[in-house]
Amino acid sequence: MSIQRATINDLNSLAELFNSYRIFYQQESNLEGAKNFLKERLTNGDSVVFIAFDEGNPVGFVQLYPTFSSVSMKRSWILNDLYVKASARKKGHGDKLINKAIAFAEETGAKGVSLETGNDNITAQSLYERIGFKKESNYFYYFSL
């Protein structure tokens, strides 16, 4: 297995994975929309994406978005998307993608990596906690349109 930072040359493979990720979250399939969205992120430098390959086949990705902490005056990264194909799960790809994201945060001098997941996504919670993420209990998160 190998992990590399995605470039525009990986767009077709990445878009297929991203489309499957969105379907996992009950969204309609939209391969062209996925391709356009990712092309814009990669072209504009809005996000950093790492893609995992197993025997040359794309099997998963992690997408990070930058944010900043005014208090610490440092960058942080939001691990916004993590996906591994069902056929490639339970082989350590998720662990390696997350560890790549953490290593990238360290390389960039970031304060850290944050993420969120659904209350019912026990599998992901177990993975995150096994890697060393701590569930935040000091803050409430709010969202508005």
Structure explained in plain terms:
Helix content is 37%, strand content 26%. The chain has helices at residues 11-24, 31-44, 93-107, 122-131; strands at residues 2-5, 48-54, 57-69, 74-84, 113-115. It is built from 4 helices and 5 strands. It has a 5-stranded mixed beta sheet, sandwiched between helices. A hairpin with a 4-residue loop joins β3 (57-69) and β4 (74-84). With 145 residues, it is of the alpha+beta class.
Please render the helix and strand layout as text.
Blueprint: E1 2-5, H1 11-24, H2 31-44, E2 48-54, E3 57-69, E4 74-84, H3 93-107, E5 113-115, H4 122-131
Any key phrases for this structure?
alpha+beta; globular; 37% helix; 26% strand; 145 residues; five-stranded mixed beta sheet
Count all strands and give the number: 5
Integer-rounded radius of gyration: 15 Å
Q: State the distance separating the first and last CA atoms.
A: 40 Å
Largest sheet: 5 strands, mixed
Strand content: 25-35%
Summarize the structure.
By secondary structure, the protein is α+β, with helices and mostly antiparallel strands.
